[in-house]
Design goal:
With 379 residues, the chain is an alpha/beta fold. It has 2 domains: 4-175 and 294-378, Zn peptidases (Aminopeptidase, 3-Layer(aba) Sandwich), CATH 3.40.630; 177-291, Alpha-Beta Plaits (2-Layer Sandwich). It has 9 helices and 16 strands. The chain has helices at residues 4-19, 28-37, 98-114, 135-141, 143-146, 204-215, 258-278, 298-310, 362-378, and strands at residues 43-48, 52-58, 65-71, 121-127, 152-160, 167-168, 172-175, 177-186, 190-191, 226-235, 242-243, 246-255, 282-291, 294-296, 315-316, 336-345. The strands form 4 sheets. An 8-stranded mixed β-sheet has the order 1-2-4-3-5-16-6-15, with helices on both faces. A hairpin with a 3-residue loop joins strand 1 and strand 2. Helix 1 runs antiparallel to helix 3 and helix 8 packs across helix 9 (362-378). The longest helix is centred in the last third of the chain and has 21 residues, at 258-278. 46% of the residues are buried. The model has no long low-confidence stretch (mean pLDDT 97).
């Protein structure tokens, strides 16, 4: 178990991380701080998939590899919470709790350094770029990851709206797949007094918006769930004398599974091509923030459930699966993986809001959950 001194150290470290946040793909200093705070790992691999850090605790005996993952990145949001350890970087803040998740792994590292696993090995992965969906793919594509490939992958995410210290956990779908699609329409400008001389996207945009909304109506979670959300729209120049010749529309697409999302992406592109052709416009696309679906393996879920029970932590399926996406799901392609949601409090400020802060009381609880899971799998 962690000592009181451990808790003080870890809480102070979490606050230090919170003061110096870095956004996706730029977590250089965060990664360096994490690596320097690791207690006696058998090996540390840095620069994994960007600024990722992997700490290895190896028994030296045959056995499976268990990976526990946290995230390094913060969000490009201005923090407004009145806390002593508030962000010192304007417009950037840890408003999702990744500072807390990484601190949990550092607490777990202390226990592993004192009492290594009897068999196999543990990989503590501090993943970069989770918020934009690029980090897990980059980690898995990095040759450095080959030697670290896990048999089991476990993680948690704190979740406001759930009672503090309680958990949601269930096998099967956990998080939706999602992608941001940028649709650019190109025509020709004209004088505002003679719009017929140009090719404007004015008529195509409303039909495109209506069509996108119809193909992803949302509703109850379940097989075939799809949701489209228009997030940004821009057309022409901010001038009264010019009929617009181009437009840009951003839409976030979600599906319960990867196939649902891919089908929705192709349907959205087909709709945009058809509307562009009807209006005599060109069209092109970009895809951003592409998250794979996250699905909890039944065996890995059972391991986490027993770890929760061993620590007296109440848990239930709750409202799973979630509409929100999570980059962790990609590790399910190479391992038995599962994630749980650990309650941050029913009335706690929501994730990604300007007054959110990770509850420090979850540090010890998160460490205990993962430590119990490792002991079951590795002894």
């Amino acid at each position: 178990m962690l000592t009181n001194a451990d808790i003080v150290d870890l809480t102070g470290f979490r606050h230090a991380l919170h003061r110096q946040p870095e956004v996706s793909g730029r977590e250089r200093e965060t990664a360096a701080r994490v690596a320097s705070f690791l207690p006696a790992p058998d090996a540390v691999v840095t620069g994994v998939g960007g600024h990722g850090v992997a700490a290895l605790y190896d028994s030296g005996q045959p056995g499976p590899t268990v990976m526990i993952r946290s995230e390094l990145d913060a969000l490009p949001i201005l923090e407004l919470g009145q806390i002593p350890h508030a962000s010192e970087t304007p417009g950037v803040a840890h408003l999702c709790g990744h500072d807390g998740h990484s601190t949990i792994l550092l607490g777990l590292a202390r226990l592993l350094a004192r009492n290594p696993p009897a068999h196999g090995r543990v990989v503590l992965l501090f993943q970069p770029a989770e918020e934009d969906g690029s980090g897990a793919r980059a980690v898995m594509n990095d040759p450095k990851f080959t030697a670290l490939t896990p048999d089991w992958s476990l993680s948690l995410h704190n979740m406001p709206g759930i009672a503090l210290g309680h958990a949601w956990l269930a096998p099967g779908p956990m998080n939706c797949a999602s992608a941001g699609l940028t649709i650019r329409l190109s025509g020709a400008t004209a004088h505002a007094s003679m719009p017929e001389d140009g090719r404007a996207p004015t008529g195509a945009l409303p039909r495109l918006i209506d069509g996108l909304r119809t193909m992803g109506p949302g509703g109850a979670m379940g097989p075939g769930f799809r949701l489209t959300t228009i997030t940004h729209l821009r057309m022409g120049e901010p001038a009264f004398g010019i009929a617009p010749g181009e437009a840009e529309l951003w839409v976030t697409l979600r599906g319960l599974g990867d196939e649902d999302l891919e089908t929705l992406l192709e349907q959205a592109k087909t709709l945009a091509r058809d509307e562009a052709a009807a209006a005599g416009l060109g069209v092109d696309f970009e895809i951003h923030d592409h998250f794979g679906a996250c699905r909890n393996d039944p065996d890995a879920t059972a391991v986490l459930a027993r770890a929760l029970d061993a620590n007296g932590i109440a848990h239930e399926p709750g409202d799973l699966p979630m509409r929100a996406s999570e980059d962790f799901g990609r590790f399910g392609a190479v391992s038995k993986s599962a994630m749980l949601l650990l309650g941050a409090g029913r009335d706690h400020p929501a994730l990604h809001t300007q007054t959110y802060d990770f509850p420090d009381t979850l540090i010890a609880q998160g460490v205990a959950i993962f430590h119990s899971a490792i002991r079951e799998l590795l002894g």
